[in-house]
Amino acid sequence: MKELLQTTQGLVILTIAGLFVISLFIQLFYYLFFYLRLAWYKPVLLKTTAEPFSVIICAHNEAENLEKFLPLVLQQDYPEFEVIVVNDCSDDYSEDLLKKIRLKYSNLKFTTIKKDEKFIHGKKLAQTIGIKSAKYETLLFIDADCYPESDKWIKNVSESYQTKTEIVLGYGGYEKAHGFLNKLIRFDTLFIGMQYLTFARAGLPYMGVGRNLSYKKNLFFKNKGFATHVRLQSGDDDLFVNETANNKNTGIVISPESITRSIPKKRFIYWLRQKRRHHTTFGHYKNAHKVLLGAEPISRMFFYSCFVILLVLNFFPLFVLITFIIRLIVQLMTLYFATSRLLEKDLLLYSPIFDVLIIFTGFMIIFSGKHRNLYAWK
Question: Which of 4, 79, 110, 305 could make an SS bond with 98 (beta carbons 3.0 to 4.6 A apart)?
Answer without folding.
Answer: 110
